Amino acid sequence: MEFLKTELDYLRNANLYRQLRWFEGSQSPRTTVNGRDCILLSSNNYLGLTDHPDVKDAALKALARWGTGSGGSRLISGNFFLYKELEDKIAQFKNAEEVIVFSSGYLTNIGTISSLVGPEDAVISDELNHASIIDGCRLSRARVVIFGHKDMLQLEKALNETQDCRRRLVITDGVFSMDGDLAPLPEIVALAEKNDAFVMVDDAHATGILGSQGTGTVEHFNLEGKVAVQVGTLSKALASCGGYVTGKSDLINYLRNKARSFIYSTGLPPAAVGAAIAAIDLIREKPEIRARLFDNANFLREGLTRLGFTILTMESQIIPILIGDDGLTMAMDKALFERGVFVTGIRPPSVPPGTSRLRVSVMATHTREDLEEVLNIFESAGRETGLI
Ligand SMILES: Cc1ncc(COP(=O)(O)O)c(C=O)c1O
User: Fold this and answer.
1) 328: how many CB neighbours lie within 10 A of its CB?
2) Nearest CA to ligand 1 atom 14
3) Which of 41, 77, 261, 352 suits 178 as a labelling partner, its CA being 20 to 30 A distant?
């Protein structure tokens, strides 16, 4: 097992070694990490709902009523009525015929993709799609064709080249997780329709956020009814964990029967289900929470741009600050943390080589005071590291 040490040494020397950091507080705007009080700017808890009293109360009530665990996979014995409440709630929210909930977003993607396409098919995927999509494509054993990020000419070429395949599935993130930009969904849908392919969108970072009701990119682009497979997670704006697929009843029944990560994995703990139900209710009833998120994102983006940081895209609550060099990225991560701001440096393989960055994600619950302090700290850390 000497290779373990060799590989770990390689990662350390290449500035690619990863270490866990320990939270001693919740995912709130101000928390404690590794013993240091800091402003959290790296969480997918975009709406701040993991700390909302209604969400916590719903989780506690679900736990009290249904217990701590589901005791089995949903098709064997672990299928509480509470899951139906959640699936009905998501169906109503997303205006979908039916919904299936998996135990994580990762499991949703690998199970969905690998059951929808196989060796006689092609899956056509944006190069910056999330790792769980990449792994789902690999597991499917379908022919995988990658198109350049948002490159519609390459997508068209891929569709032309795969005409001999039995089925063609085009997959894209709705909001790209490390870049924060939106997929050109109208163009993707039009090309897929023209070529008799079907589309899957992963709205992990758009669920609860984009669109007039917060249901995601399909609503944002007015494409209701045009995207056959819509995936999302409960783990980000919905303040819980788990993943879902929405679509026609046939699709959902098919996944219940075919998706191995659904069939062979234990159902979500009831507290997580209760929390997600309450989070959806809040998103529907209180649009002002989303409005605060957008305000905060605009404020922070403008401030960081003014300071001279290079912001890759300006389209969502995810603000990627491009640094490029892995070592410099981690130096900035450290300088920020020492001054009281927690933002994780993102390096390959999470992003392409040479594009290491700070992935800043703002929350609806940050106050203006928090963000002003963040900007002061970015200025000081940026000067120390020579970034600005
Ligand atoms: C685009 C995208 N899809 C899927 C996932 C996986 O979701 P989960 O963390 O709920 O497993 C993530 C999580 O980071 C993601 O960013």
Assistant:
1) 16
2) 177
3) 261
Looking at CATH, the fold of the domain delimited by 53-285 is given as Aspartate Aminotransferase; domain 2 (3.40.640)
Q: CA–CA separation, 361 vs 32, rounded Å?
A: 17
**Per-residue model confidence (pLDDT) at position 220:** 98
Whole-angstrom Cα distance, residue 209 to residue 115?
A: 28
| Cβ atoms 100, 231 nearer than 8 A | no
Q: What is the pLDDT of residue 175?
A: 98
Overall pTM > 0.85: yes
Distance 306 CA to ligand 1 centre (A): 31
Residue ranges of the chain that CATH labels 3.40.640.10: 53-285
Which residue positions in the chain have pLDDT lower than 70?
A: none
Angle at CA of residue 317, ends 356 and 225, nearest 5°: 110
Q: State the helix-helix crossing angle for 53-66 and 81-94, rounded to 10 degrees.
A: 150
**CATH code, residues 16-45+287-385:** 3.90.1150.10
202 lines ligand 1 (CB under 6 A): yes
Which atom of ligand 1 is closest in space to residue 109's alpha carbon?
4
CA 205 to chain centre: 4
For CATH 3.90.1150.10, list the domain ranges present in the chain: 16-45+287-385
pLDDT at position 288, please? 98
Choose among 24, 26, 30: nearest CA to 340: 30
CA–CA distance, 131 with 133 (Å, rounded to integer): 5
